[in-house]
Design brief:
The chain is mainly alpha-helical and about 230 residues long. It is built from 9 helices and no strands.
């Protein structure tokens, strides 16, 4: 098997784990009458992201998020031709995870849309895009600082990125579901048929992710002239 296909499979498995555990925690919270709560759901997301980074970071970089992949393309850290199969693998992993959740949690299909993200009461489409952009900016900025930048302290990327996911959900969960990731929303949406305000979870994360990458590279990246 070629190295490229290993990367694609890695992205598939990593995104599957993210959606199955993360969105699955929402479904579990429903069937357990709120036993997990917001903190439990946020912790599940943070821990699974952390685990996948340590498990597959050395294989594919553990993007497991089209917004991250697009940010790397925008900053010329990755070629567009390489990004397409990454994103396809991420979406495929998310869809399979969503379908598994549909089988395992049939009562959560209509009740919580299998953990699909949605806007909170009183949150408009535009506000939702803004919230998702801000949350994803923080996530991708941390990814660039902790994982992409060669000066970062080794071994801490998974912890740092997992913590950002956790606190982003604690703040943004009641507002938008704190997706920060088009694939994370797409998989459960397809499995449950819930597409309300779906574009929020593409527009916001992509804008926030690209902006974070450009800011980090433009302001904080190591100046090659100083090497």
């Amino acid at each position: 098997m070629t190295e490229a296909y290993k990367k694609y499979i890695s992205e598939f498995i990593g995104t599957f784990a993210l959606v199955f555990i993360g969105a699955g925690s929402v479904a579990t919270n429903y069937i357990s009458d709120g036993a997990l709560g917001l903190f439990g759901i946020a912790t599940a997301f943070g821990l699974v992201v952390m685990a996948m980074i340590y498990a597959t970071g050395h294989i594919s970089g553990t993007h497991i998020n089209p917004a991250v992949t697009i940010a790397l393309v925008a900053t010329k850290k990755m070629g567009g031709k390489d990004a397409v199969p990454y994103i396809i693998s991420q979406l495929a992993g998310a869809v399979v995870a969503g379908m598994m959740l549909r089988i395992i949690y049939p009562t959560a299909v209509e009740a919580v849309n299998l953990g699909t993200t949605g806007l909170g009461a009183g949150v408009s489409f535009g506000t939702g895009v803004l919230v998702e952009a801000i949350l994803t900016f923080l996530l991708v900025f941390t990814i660039f600082g902790a994982a992409v930048d060669s000066r970062a302290a080794p071994g801490f990327a998974g912890f740092a990125i997992g913590m950002v996911v956790l606190f982003d959900i604690l703040v943004g969960g009641p507002l938008t579901g704190a997706s920060m990731n088009p694939a994370r929303t797409f998989g459960p949406a397809l499995a449950s048929g819930y597409w309300v305000n779906h574009l929020v979870y593409w527009i916001g994360p992509i804008i926030g992710g690209v902006l974070a990458g450009l800011v980090y590279e433009g302001v904080f990246a190591k100046d090659k002239s100083d090497e």
